[in-house]
Each structure stands twice: as C-alpha cells, then as structure tokens.
Amino acid sequence: MEELEQGLLMQPWAWLQLAENSLLAKAYITKQGYALLVSDLQQVWHEQVDTSVISQRAKELNKRLTAPPAAFLCHLDDLLCPLLKDTACPGKATFSCDRVAEALILRVSQHLIRPLMGMSLALQCQVRDLATLLRMKDLEIQDYQESGATLSR
C-alpha cells in the first residue's frame, strides 16, 4: 500500500468536470490496487484499495462475474487515465457524481499542504533574491551619484 501512496503523491492534479460538479482529482493504479484522491476544494475524498477489496466488491456487485482483480484494475486504468490526462479528449467512459453525507478520513497533507508549503518557500526565496538584487542596484545607483554622474529616470 505504501507504493500506492507514493505513486499517488507523484501524480499531478487534474480538473474533472462531472455534470455540474467541478472537481480536482488524481489517481494511481497498479496491478496491486489503486489510490484515488478527489476534492471540490471544500471537501476531500480519499480511497486506497488493494486486490482483496476489489475482489470482494466485484462479488458483491455481480456474483456471476469472475475476473482477476488485475483485469478490473486494467479496465479502471483504461477508463480513468484518459479522463484525468487529456481533458480535450475525455475518452469513451461517462461518469456521474452524487454527494452523500458520509465520514471522511482526511489524509491530504502530502498532496495539498506540502506542495503549497514548497511553493511558498520557493516564492519566498524569489522575493529574497529580488530584494537582494534591488539593494545591489540601489548601491550601484548610489555609487554613480557619488561619482558625479547624473541619472535620468
């Protein structure tokens, strides 16, 4: 399951338009399971599932359908990847979204907070570098003025 979490962490967020719902989503699918993270910027839904859960769900949804979990995961990957990777060509599947009040386990610090903190740190470094550059320019201008040069603008 750690591989799924690490794989999900490496995936970019994608805009997902389902009927009137505009969502951010990322998914990581392997032969051992999948991890899915969806947000409407007010709530976040996370699901991480291995092959045993997929087999159990398949039996619950259709007792006569028998297929290895890897086949379900491959099909899920075929349906989701075009939807998340290429918004201009959404693929052959259609999706809908219904919201219900259920418990939500929030595990998104690696996916939301850390990248935002990293971007904030990068922007702070840029601001510090720009401030240093301005100070150097001010010193250069002051040096020109002290040497008797007249500056325009």
- In the predicted model, the low-confidence regions spanning at least 5 consecutive residues are 103-107
CATH topology of the largest domain: Dna Repair Protein Xrcc4, Chain: A, domain 1
* CA-based shape: elongated
The percent range for helix content is: 40-55%
Q: What is the distance, rounded to the nearest whole angstrom, between the alpha carbons of the first and last residues? A: 62 Å
CATH class of the largest domain: Mainly Beta
* Radius of gyration over C-alpha positions, nearest whole angstrom: 25 Å
User: What's the total number of strands?
Assistant: 4
Number of helix segments?
A: 4
Question: How does this structure look, described?
Answer:
The protein is α+β, with helices and mostly antiparallel strands and 153 residues long. The chain folds into two domains: 1-99, DNA double-strand break repair and VJ recombination XRCC4, N-terminal (Dna Repair Protein Xrcc4, Chain: A, domain 1, Beta Complex); 101-152. It is 49% helix and 19% strand. The chain contains four helices and four strands. The chain has helices at 2-10, 51-61, 69-85, 109-146, and strands spanning 14-18, 21-30, 33-39, 44-50. It has a four-stranded antiparallel beta sheet. A hairpin with a 2-residue loop joins strand 1 (14-18) and strand 2. The protein is elongated. The N and C termini lie far apart (62 Å). Residues 12-116 form the XLF-like N-terminal domain. It is found in: Nucleus. Keywords: DNA damage, DNA repair, DNA-binding, Nucleus. Belongs to the XRCC4-XLF family. XLF subfamily. It comes from Monodon monoceros.
